Structures are given as C-alpha cells and as structure tokens.
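PROTEIN DESIGN WORKSHEET
SECTION A - STRUCTURE
LENGTH: 668
TOKENS:
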C-alpha cells in the first residue's frame, strides 16, 4: 500500500519549481513508474538515506494552503491509536480530485470558491423560543471555554437540534466579535437525515456558508465543499463520519448528533469511531464538544456518571402539548399474531385509518421471509458460500444472501427430497406489507428498507410522501427509526424485536434498546389533537417480563443503563476493559486458526489478557473462513503499547492468511 507510507524525496529549486515545500502541502512525486500525490509531513535538511539516492519532488501544490500542523497531528494520533500508517488516515480524508496527477480539478474548485458568496435563497427562520431546560443547555454550551465534553441527554422530540443551532450561533457570533471567523462541525449518523437538517440550518444561518461532507456527494461537489471548509470560508460543516477528518482551521465547536449511533463506526479498512475521534479532536483543540442522544452509548453514559463529561438534560418534549407516547407490550403467547400482526395492533391501526392518522410498523428484517424450508426432510435455504440463510425476496422472485449477495431462483420443489411444498418461514418487511394490503385494501401502504430504496434519492422521495400525508401505513427497517419528524404519526408498532435479547453479541441489547426508544420516539411529535388518539407504541413480544421492555415502558434509560453497566462490570466487558480484535481470513478455517494460534503466543506481557482464538459467529462469508482473537486490558495505555509491539512482530511474519486488527471493536 504505497499511499499509506512515508518516503523521503529531495526538492530542488528550479524555474518551474520555485516555491519551497512546507509541511502540510501536497506534492507530486514519482513512485515506481507512476506519479502520485503525497502529503508533506516533514521537511528536513538531511536524509538518513543520503540525498543523492532520493528521487525528486516533481511539483508542490502551492495553490492550496498547507494543511495545518494541528490537522496532521490529529491524523497522526488517529493513525497511532488505530495502529495504521499515517497516510491511511490522512489521504482518504482528502477528496480524490486533490490527489489527482493534474491540478485541473483543484484549480477549478479554488476558482469557484473564490467567486462564491453566501447565498441562501430560502426565507430565513428566526430562532425558536426555548423552554427552560433548552435555555440552560444553550447557556452552558455557549459559555464553555476550552475542552468541555458535554452529554446532551434529551428524550426524542425534546428539541436537541434547536439547542445545537442556538449554541452554534453564539459560538460563531463570539468568534466574529473577537475578529476571527469561527467554524462549527456538526456530525450526523445517516445521509438520508441530512437534507431536512441541512435546510433547517441554512434557513437559520442566512449569512453563514454551510457545506455538507458525506459519501453521497459527486467528486466536484465534494472538492468544493472540502475546500470551503479548509479555507475557513464555510462557517458550518454538516457531515457524516468521514467529515471528522475534514480540515477546518477555525474549528470552535463539534456537535455529534445521535452519538450512540453505530454508523459512526467505520466497519472496514481503517475501523475508526468518528465519535471517539471527535472527542479527541476537541481535546486537542481545547474546544467544547456536544454529544447528543436520548440513549447515549454506555461508554458516554459512564463518562457522564463519573463526571468526566458534563451532563445536560432535556426531559420534556419541545413542542407544547406534545407528550411522549405510552408504550404497551403485547404478549404474543396470548394474542397470537396472524400475518405477523396481533389483534390488538390490527385494531389500533384500524382506528388510525378511521381518524386519518398515520401508523408506522418497525421490523428489522428485510425481504419476504428470512428462510424457506421443506417440512418433509428439513431442508433449509442455506447460502452455499456463507454461514447464513438465503432470504426470500418475493417481488423479485429470488433467493438472496444478504452477506455475499449471491442470488438464486426460488426452487419449485425441495432440492433434497423433491417435495413441492417448500414454505417461507418467518416474516420480513415484504411479507408484512403483503399482509397489510390484505387486511386494509383501501389503505396506502409504503415499505421503506434497503431494497425499496436502492436508487439514489429514492429514500428521500419516499420519506417526503410520508411527510405530505400520502401514506397511511409505513413499514420499515431501522431506516425509518431515526430522525424523522412525522407530524401525523400517532401509532408505532414494533414487530418481533426478541431475537436481539438472546444474541451472543453483548452489545445487542444496548442497540435494541436504543433502536426501540428511537422508533417509539417517532410517535406523537406534534401537539396532541383534542379529538385525536393518544400516541401509542405497541411492542409485540413473547417476553413481556424482560427487564429491557420494562425500562422501555417506563421510558427509563437511566435505569436500563445502570443495570447494563453493572452487568458489564461483573462480566469484565467494555467500558470496564479495553479490547482489540485480530481477525484472520483464509480458504481453510484451520489456516486462519493456526495463524491466530501463532499470534496468541507471539508476545506475552503482564496485564494483557490474550483469549483463545475462535471461529467467528458467522464463520464463512463468500467461501472465506474467518476466525478471531480477542485481546483485552483494563489499561488503555498498556493495551496500546502492547499492540504496537505485537503488530510489529506479526507484520514481520510471512503468511498467506489475510489478517487485520481492530481497536475498540463493536461486533464481536
Ligand atoms: Zn425436502
Ligand atoms: Zn452468502
């Protein structure tokens, strides 16, 4: 991986190369037979390699202001923490256009930026009136000096966004008063939530340049937005996890909305947590950081409980007369579902239809049925390449593996015994949709999941039809749980959430609780209508006595988090220990395991717990066998020191096994 490493080059003044390189500049250098763009991380008068042996810098991209030492320092920290080379952190954070061999795109971007003035054609919106809790939060955040990590703990619909915006306005105004141009970075988990928020921010900051940074931008746009942030012209940068690596020379505050959200964790390549990096960046810059959530990550909650983070609470809904919905559990042993829905839930949907109100059904399982099987011989639709089932997709008439994307025709009869009666087992969103259409033929039913929103922009378009009131019943996966403010929605039905209760993954219940609180929070966002139904959340479960559901009914995150933290402490799990996970992949499981056995005995250091290598829960994906080795320590610095030494040993070993290391893994 040449892009990731550091190499020495020599620079010589010449008529076409007459501006001296400075740390933070990009430069074009020869690399093998190619010419590539690198980042200058050090300038020295000498090289240990001998100047005459070095290749020459071809050109320095002096038209682009150097990336700041602080930014490089930040990338260096991330690289060391996640045990990766600096270039692997620093370079992917830059738009592709800046890494191109020619400067055409860069010059075009700079020219466009020079001409650009702030233009927001939408009508400006005035700040909303704050309730007392919101006011206290804004005052605290705006008054924060230096590194102050703040947990903004607010129930769904409590107006966290309003707090962010008013605090940001004060921070930007203060910078301006001090004669500087300030910048605020706002991180959000999902791209499909950005347009709504982006519009709101633009209307509230008509004089501030607001840019977005996320993976859905076209390259030209991304370059332009990145340059706006890097030049300091953009006062507000709104982005997803990759935006944490943006260059923002005047950064004065960071906001991480829905800080608990799993999408802040990059799950391939450099497996970083944008939330954790945001805290570190704020620490480095000595600026406040606001972590907002109704269901904070346990790590964050623990920091707030031990006063390392300041906690600010928003316990009431911001819209007057909007009240939190009541949560009710439906025991599916007593009220047996037909077509996946209990009679209680069906009756509740019917009442919404009669009143012209909307219902939302949440089921975290896409497709028609998770598996098909043969009753006669017990055959099930296993994926031939993965430790997983092939999922039935009825509209497409296909079996599909959600892990390796393999597709097959639906067999007419059992491949093993020839029985023609192969049946779908279980229910996904497509099957519930079909059931709803049968029960309520007049109702307008819309399904939103990864299958129905494959095309770019289609998710946004689908959500807009819900906002316009053109949908009576919405059925969807976790995509529908987040952020959206549906004004006419008064019923949320949760289908089949139980599987997560018994998952091997110790984080599954934390995630389930957050998800259920989120989806429950979609109901009753607007003021209660006098003659309307009280907003209601109905959860279909076989385990109504489970404490997780008890905490959900009581709307009591504190209680849930406290008991979960106790469990984690007793079991010696994060946040009470720090972990790193080595993964190994090979054609044969034995090879992956053998490699990890060697790794497990390569270095022994006191205070480091080396677990036994084991096959991963989903052992095979796309015909590759996978195993893992977990390393733990109660001391983060000790673990970091160990990893550095251990990886140096492992990198020196020759092996055909593909391996990687993840620090602070979330899926074990
Ligand atoms: Zn059979
Ligand atoms: Zn597969």
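SECTION B - SEQUENCE
RESIDUE ASSIGNMENT:
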């Amino acid at each position: 991986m040449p892009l990731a490493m550091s190499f020495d080059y020599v620079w010589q003044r010449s008529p076409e190369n007459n501006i001296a390189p400075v740390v933070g500049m990009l430069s074009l250098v020869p690399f093998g037979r190619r010419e590539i763009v690198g980042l200058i991380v050090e300038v020295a008068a000498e090289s240990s390699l001998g100047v005459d042996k070095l290749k020459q810098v071809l050109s320095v991209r002096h038209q682009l202001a150097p990336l700041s030492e602080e930014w490089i320092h930040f990338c260096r920290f991330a690289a060391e923490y996640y045990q990766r080379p600096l270039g692997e952190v620093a370079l992917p954070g830059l738009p592709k256009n800046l890494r191109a061999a020619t400067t055409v795109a860069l010059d075009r971007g700079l020219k466009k930026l020079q001409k650009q003035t702030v233009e927001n054609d939408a009508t400006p919106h005035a700040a909303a009136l704050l309730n007392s809790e919101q006011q206290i939060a804004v005052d605290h955040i705006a008054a924060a000096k230096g590194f102050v990590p703040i947990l903004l703990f607010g129930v769904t619909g409590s107006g966290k966004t309003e707090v962010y915006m008013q605090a940001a306005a004060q921070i930007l105004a203060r910078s301006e008063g001090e004669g500087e141009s300030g910048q605020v970075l706002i991180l959000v988990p999902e791209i499909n939530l950005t347009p709504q928020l982006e519009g709101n921010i633009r209307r509230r900051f008509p004089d501030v340049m607001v840019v977005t940074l996320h993976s859905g931008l076209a390259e030209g746009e991304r370059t332009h937005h990145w340059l706006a942030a890097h030049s300091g012209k953009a006062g507000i940068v709104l982005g997803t996890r990759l935006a944490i690596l943006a260059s923002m020379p005047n950064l004065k505050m960071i906001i991480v909305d829905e800080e608990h959200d799993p999408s802040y964790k990059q799950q391939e390549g450099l497996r970083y947590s944008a939330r954790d990096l945001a805290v570190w960046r704020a620490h480095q810059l000595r600026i406040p950081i606001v972590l907002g959530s109704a269901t904070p990550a346990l790590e964050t909650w623990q920091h707030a409980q031990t006063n390392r983070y300041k906690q600010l609470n928003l316990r009431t809904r911001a819209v007057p007369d909007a009240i939190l919905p009541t949560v009710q559990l439906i025991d599916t042993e007593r009220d047996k579902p037909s077509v996946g829905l209990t009679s209680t839930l069906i009756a509740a949907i019917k009442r919404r239809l009669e009143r012209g109100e909307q219902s939302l059904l949440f089921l975290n399982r896409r497709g028609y049925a998770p598996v098909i099987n043969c009753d006669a011989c017990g055959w099930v639709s296993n994926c031939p390449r993965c430790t997983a089932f092939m999922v039935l997709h009825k509209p497409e008439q296909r079996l599909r593996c959600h892990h390796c994307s393999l597709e097959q025709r639906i067999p007419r009869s059992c491949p093993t015994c020839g029985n023609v009666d192969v049946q779908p087992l279980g229910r996904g969103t497509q099957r519930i949709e079909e059931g709803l259409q049968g029960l309520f033929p007049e109702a307008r039913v819309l399904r939103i999941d990864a299958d129905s929103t494959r095309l770019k922009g289609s998710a946004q378009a689908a959500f807009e039809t819900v906002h316009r009131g053109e949908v009576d019943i919405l059925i969807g996966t976790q995509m529908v749980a987040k952020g959206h403010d549906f004004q006419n929605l008064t019923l949320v039905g949760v289908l089949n959430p139980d599987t997560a209760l018994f998952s091997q993954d110790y984080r599954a219940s934390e995630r389930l609780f957050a998800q259920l609180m989120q989806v429950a929070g979609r109901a009753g966002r607007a003021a209660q209508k006098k003659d309307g139904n009280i907003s209601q959340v109905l959860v279909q479960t076989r385990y109504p006595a489970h404490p997780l559901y008890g905490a959900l009914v009581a709307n009591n995150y504190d209680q849930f988090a406290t008991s979960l933290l106790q469990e984690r402490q007793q079991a010696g799990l994060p946040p009470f220990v720090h972990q790193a996970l080595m993964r190994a992949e090979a054609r044969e499981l034995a090879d992956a395991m053998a490699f990890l056995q060697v790794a497990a005995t390569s270095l022994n250091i006191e205070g480091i717990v080396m677990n036994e290598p084991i096959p991963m829960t989903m052992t095979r994906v796309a015909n590759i066998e996978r195993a893992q080795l977990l390393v733990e320590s109660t001391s983060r610095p000790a673990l970091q020191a160990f990893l550095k030494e251990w990886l140096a040993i492992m990198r020196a070993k020759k092996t055909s096994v593909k391996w990687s290391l993840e620090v602070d893994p979330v899926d074990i």
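SECTION C - NOTES
The mean pLDDT is 91.
The chain has four domains: 2-68+76-92, 132-314, 326-366+428-567, 578-663.
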